[in-house]
Amino acid sequence: MKHFLLFIATILSVLSYGQTNSKHTYVKDYYRKDGTHVEGHYRTEKNNTNSDNFSTKGNTNPYTGQPGYIPSDNNTPTYSAPSYQNYNSTQTYTTTNSSYNNPNKYEGTTNSLGQKVITYSDGQEVFGLCKLNCDIIYNEKLTYYWYSSYSGIQKTTGSSGGTLLDGEYKLFNAKGNLIIKAHYNKGLEHGEYINWNEDGKIKEKLHYTNGNCDYIKLTNDQGYIVEWIGSLFQKGSVKKVYTSSGILDSKSEFFEPFKSHVTEYYPSGKTRLTYTSGMSDFVYGTYTDYYESGKIKFQGFFNDNAFEVGEWKWYNEDGTIKYSHKFRYSEDKYSNGQIKEKGSFVFYDDKWLQSGRWYYYDESGGQTDTREFEFGKEVTQDK
């Protein structure tokens, strides 16, 4: 890294995902005709190949960490991947501009405030360096930012290779406009961080306390405003998602690490959905969908594996039962105890039929396939 590269580290980093298509589409959760719930998820946009799909061998889904399992068709994709892609809150956010790369030197100058000033062909960064009591005991779990005239600003975990950043940091573009402002305390991110677009609008706003992020507000690629209050994914933290017009879309309240009670809202502010969410946004426990009037539209229960179980009921808006389906979870195992396949059945037409997504594994526990079913008939999955 030959210039300032500021990482806003969340608890869950985006895992390496091979040569996947950089264009992603969000598919909102929905219910099939048989009543099975299909969770909201991201998929790659369709093109002329499956080689860049999340589910293709050699790739990894950056949202779930699930490795691919489908053989590649080896066709060459017809897209051009951008250098940077947002992946909502389950990502490592990187704020950089590749045009700041590879300056000839990093000695820079010192301004009247004692700050280091490094000027590039298309921008300038100004930052403070630690001068007093800089011989610290490093925390092996925290990330420290430091500077040297040879390498510029770098970051390392649990150590440093130069002079620690301390005080204010500013990054200006070629027009002299401020695009990043941050603060450091002996190498640790501490205080407010703001990132502006080229047009002067705030893109991201965060807050750190001695290297730990306890507030985030940003706009994701889908135009939603995401706000985190408290330590990400930890007990007591709250995640709020707003539409581009500022209307509250959902709220997640974490009662345990990575487990939250979620409420989704109608534009009017009335409750639309309530459920409990775990790792990788898996839903478990009671799931309730409401009419805007506040009456229950349908309700059911997910087991700890996020499969529908028990009786699910659908209601008319006057509260009378419209229809219901019974579900049961099933799994088959190899002789060595490893799961061979798992999924849900729905009771329909006096028989149990495969329903929703089924997962298939080899004898070592590696996933080999997934299939979608609706009333016992296999249906085409989203790419």
Task: Write up this protein.
The chain is 0% helix and 50% strand. The protein is mostly beta strands and 383 residues long. The strands form 4 sheets. It has a 24-stranded antiparallel beta sheet that branches. A two-stranded antiparallel sheet has the order 1-6. The two termini are 35 Å apart.
- Major β-sheet, in short? 24 strands, antiparallel
Q: Please state roughly what percent of the residues sit in beta strands, choosing from under 5%, 5-15%, 15-25%, 25-35%, 35-45% or over 45%.
A: over 45%
Number of H/I helices: 0
Instruction: Classify the helix fraction into a percent range.
Output: under 10%
Order of helices and strands: EEEEEEEEEEEEEEEEEEEEEEEEEEEEEE
Q: What is the strand tally?
A: 30
Shape: elongated
What is the average of the pLDDT values?
Answer: 81
Low-confidence stretches: 1-18, 33-37, 77-104
Radius of gyration: 25 Å
Protein structure class:
mainly beta
Q: Alpha-carbon distance between the termini? A: 35 Å
Observed structural traits:
single chain, mainly beta, 24-stranded antiparallel β-sheet, elongated
Quickly describe the structure.
Helices cover 0% and strands 50% of the residues. The radius of gyration is 25 Å and the shape is elongated. The protein has strands at residues 6-9, 24-27, 30-31, 37-38, 41-44, 92-95, 109-110, 116-120, 123-129, 143-148, 152-157, 163-173, 178-185, 188-189, 191-196, 202-209, 212-219, 225-229, 238-242, 248-256, 259-265, 271-277, 283-290, 296-302, 308-315, 321-333, 339-348, 351-361, 367-374, 377-379.
